[in-house]
Amino acid sequence: MPARPFGPAGRPNLAARSRGRVGGRDLSHLGALDAADPADTELAHPVRAHPGPPNATVRNLAVGTLIAFVVASYVGNLFLSVLVNERPLLFIALNAQNRNLALASGELGALEFYVVGFLRLIGPDPLFFLIGRWYGDGAIRWMERTAPSYGAILRQLEQWFDKARLLVVAIAPNNPVCLFAGAAGMTWGAFLAANAIGTVVRLVLVRLFSSAFEGQLSSVRGFIDEYRWPLLALSFVLVGYTIWNDRKGGREDIEDLLRLDDEIEEYEAELAHEHEAGTPGTPGTPGDPAAPGEPDPHDGRDADGAP
User: Fold this and answer.
1) In 205-242, which positions are buried (b, 16+ CB within 10 angstroms) versus exposed (e)?
2) pTM over the 0.85 mark
């Protein structure tokens, strides 16, 4: 593991099952697939090592940029009542969730809507893809904890991804899917193409929706403009409550990113311990009830993260 960027210093799923490496650590001595077993060899994925980021500077830049996206999203939500009518382009540049895109669309020309909306939506995706490539299964475990509401989706992804990875990324190019794509060894070209197509389709659908309901959305914008200051105060209360509730539940977007390296190291240690102990249900260990390459029905993992 490279030097930690900020602060002090499982399960083997689809990638670890085939390569005996997690986050760049060689775990082959702790238990690997029996190469003599044809069934194991057939079901295993091609070897794809996850060596970690090239250096601390690159990793810090990626994590710092993701934190900037998180802060921008909070600012967009806080100042919705002021920005949606007076600075709609800045509004979607800060936070391009579907609600904001639909509200601002009627105030924007097609070109600026599509260009800024596309750049804001796609901005965090290559960074989560990189984290997946750098840390592999450790990154997936980290995402499971930081976005537990997506656990069922991520479990299903493991079953779908090999058969329809392009479709999955195009339909749902959110943070966990992008991270999973990197951990699964998807190529950059395929990932970027599917992600771009899915993002453009999303923007077109939002634009069509906004055009169809512009009368109602215009009334909403008028209400927001009339009561902008009370709504601004309400926004601060709601965003503050959201942050407090997330902290209470053990989820902190910025803190989670700052502790990314430390937490992934902990998950890798857990995975190494599982291999050493020969935990039942861990592929490649004695007494494994599930064949290598098949999903373990007892584990879970988690997505739109914040940015």
Assistant:
1) ebbeebeeeeeebeeebeebeeebeebeeebeeebeee
2) no
